[in-house]
Amino acid sequence: MYWLFAPIEQRPSKGASLFEGIPIVSFAAILFPQLNQQLPEKITQAFGWFGLISLSIILLIFIIYVW
User: Fold this and answer.
1) Which of 12, 30, 51, 63 has the smallest count of CB within 10 Å of its CB?
2) pTM (predicted TM-score)
3) How far is CA 19 from the centre of its chain?
4) Is residue 10 within 8 Å of 2, Cβ to Cβ?
5) In 10 A of CB 51, how many CB atoms?
6) Chain mean position to CA 3
């Protein structure tokens, strides 16, 4: 709730928002695959796992090489 009303200079960057949003969407795809009516449940879960694993790899690369 604080981030909605925080001053502009204290809001997280768009990159930080992606690192928060992708895991939320991935967990939702894994836990609630029936919400996606267009694809079978197994494919939706696979996309969720792919999102979590790829984000973890990107974060590890960032931590090792950049930070």
Assistant:
1) 63
2) 0.71
3) 5
4) no
5) 18
6) 17
